[in-house]
Specification:
Layout (H helix, E strand, L loop, with lengths): L5 E5 L3 H11 L4 E5 L2 H11 L3 E5 L7 H10 L6 E5 L4 H9 L4 E4 L4 H14 L3 H8 L6 H13 L6 E4 L6 H10 L8 E5 L8 H6 E2 L11 E2 L1 H5 L3 E5 L6 H13 L1 E2 L8 E2 L3 E6 L3 H6 L4
Parallel strand pairs: 1-2, 1-3, 3-4, 4-5, 6-13, 7-10, 10-13
Antiparallel strand pairs: 8-9, 11-12
Length: 287
């Protein structure tokens, strides 16, 4: 039996399967499925480490297959492949838990690298729990680990809610460790401990001359986290005007350091944590 990672490729085109097999067979054990229904059946007896899923197929689309996988609690990383890529379908795929989204035609190296990165990020949850010092085997803790495993490999923004001292930052680190960004930095910001006068310079950084004592440029936490994960701990404590500014930053994926004239690109996975009910805070106008 091969010890190579098992890949299930779901695509209705014979040519696509031949290309994938030729590209991946030296490093992976690749199993084909020619329809969404066939793919869903094979998931149970192949137990793949990762699924390559075509977006457009007759009868059952890739998004429909992905939705069915999540409904059946199949927490297998999925990479969507499509020649019909657009922003809306990409957003839908990520919301349904896709680990990545690659448009055809793609470079051979790009697909192989995506596979290796995602598979390397998969860790045994028990081992990760021990490494991070997260103790407890209650049904509630196990449910949290199931959610970490389900959404860790995606780029979806995550909100962790819980009382102070319940390990929100540790679970944020777990999300980072099993994500495709695990080789990047994990950068936490304690919003409750950040003086309002320092919020902008600490988060966005500043350019030389931005204020009286700015004798040199300094990168902010956003730049530190680029390519990795940013944790906004106790985000409800962040002043409203900075909440609005950060919302725009994450929508546009660009920001301007304090005193800067040019915007910088941003590529981070956002995890937030709070010990308060942010829905109620929104109703009260404080979030």
């Amino acid at each position: 039996m091969s010890s190579s990672p098992t890949i299930l490729a779901i695509d209705d085109e014979q040519a696509a399967h031949k290309a994938l097999s030729r590209l991946l067979e030296s490093e992976f054990s690749v199993h084909p499925a020619y329809s969404g229904a066939e793919g869903l059946k094979k998931v149970d007896f192949i137990a793949p480490d990762l699924i390559l899923l075509d977006m457009r197929m007759p009868e059952m689309s890739g998004l429909a297959v992905l939705k069915k996988l999540r409904e059946n609690d199949k927490n297998i990383p999925v990479i969507i492949l499509t020649a019909y890529g657009n922003v809306n379908s990409a957003v839908q795929a990520i919301k349904l838990g896709a680990a990545d989204y690659i448009e055809k035609p793609f470079g051979d190296g790009k697909l192989r690298q995506a596979l290796k990165t995602i598979l390397k990020g998969k860790q045994d949850i028990g081992e990760l729990s021990s490494q991070l010092g997260i103790v407890g085997k209650s049904p509630q803790i196990q449910k949290v680990w199931q959610l970490v495993e389900k959404y860790g490999s995606t780029d979806l923004p995550i909100l962790l809610r819980g009382e102070t001292g319940t390990g929100k930052e540790l679970f944020a680190r777990a999300l980072h460790r099993i994500s495709k960004r695990h080789q990047g930095s994990f950068v936490p910001i304690d919003c409750s401990a950040l003086p309002e006068s320092l919020v902008e310079s600490e988060i966005f950084g500043y350019e030389k001359g931005a204020f009286t004592d700015a004798d040199r440029s300094k990168p902010g936490r956003l730049e530190w986290a680029n390519g990795g994960t940013l944790l906004l701990d106790e985000i409800g404590n962040l002043p409203l005007r900075y909440q609005v500014k950060l919302l725009r930053v994450f929508q546009e994926q660009r920001y301007i350091p304090l005193g800067g004239r040019k915007s910088k690109s941003l590529d981070v996975r956002l995890v937030s944590a709070s010990n308060t009910d942010l829905r109620k805070a929104t109703q009260h106008g404080s979030f």
